[in-house]
Amino acid sequence: MTAASFAYGAQPALTGIDFAVLPGQAVALIGPNGSGKSTLLKGILGLITRTSGAVDVLGQWPAPAGYIGYVPQTDQLDPHFPVSLEQVVMMGRYRSLGWWRRPATADRRAVAEALDTVGLGSRAKSRFGKLSGGQQQRGLLARAVASAPRLLLLDEPFNGLDQVNRDALIDTVKRLKQQGVAVLVSTHDLDLARAVCESVLLLNGAQVAFGPRDDVLTLANVQRAFGSVGVEMDEHTIVVPGHGGH
Questions:
Q1: Is domain 2-213+223-239 annotated with CATH 3.40.50.2000?
Q2: Model pTM greater than 0.90?
Q3: Nearest residue to 197 via CA among 82, 32, 83, 30
Q4: For the chain, which residues make up each domain, given as ranges?
Q5: Is 142 in contact with 99 (CB distance < 8 Å)?
Q6: Measured distance CA(177)–CA(195) in Å, rounded
Q7: Is residue 179 exposed (0-12), middle (13-18) or buried (19+ Cβ within 10 Å)?
Q8: pLDDT tens, residue by residue, 167-210
């Protein structure tokens, strides 16, 4: 991505973004609420207007079908809908299936492998709405993985997860990187950034800093990103008074 800016209609949302994420590596997006983390992910997906600059995924734009997997911060799937985890993950194959073709052996294999990747292979037939919140989040990640993406976008994937599911998610991202998947993850969780991300992109309506994780995650840089708000940073989390973290 080179000097890219994005807008919602006529309203500028994010400017001057210039970074790269390579196959098998991960970049953490860090910044306060409203800083443009979700906006950047939507810009990469082509869901909002790019007003300047260039975006490409493995040298191509728009990205070919299936190149990008996306796990949003909130999902519209009704937990009361009588659907199994396996069926939810199969939704990740619809782009290649179309709406007219029944899943083939290759599709069922991709779903099974995606569930194994997130550690939920034994729960394939379970009703999605009966799973814990953390298991549902991992199921949504499996849905994205089932499409065999080259780039995976994760928007605050750790929100509300207990330690077991946090560890499972970290292990999953590490496995995907080993398979050559590039990962872009929006987070305020420094444990996640340090565990799986080689680089960090600090945002606050514009790019504040980008580079190797340990070079960028300094108190001075984080304070620049969070502006006039008082910031503390321990080894786990960026703490903003009155908010608990961003």
A1: no
A2: no
A3: 30
A4: 2-213+223-239
A5: no
A6: 12
A7: exposed
A8: 998 999 999 999 999 999 998 887 788 889 999 999 999 999 99
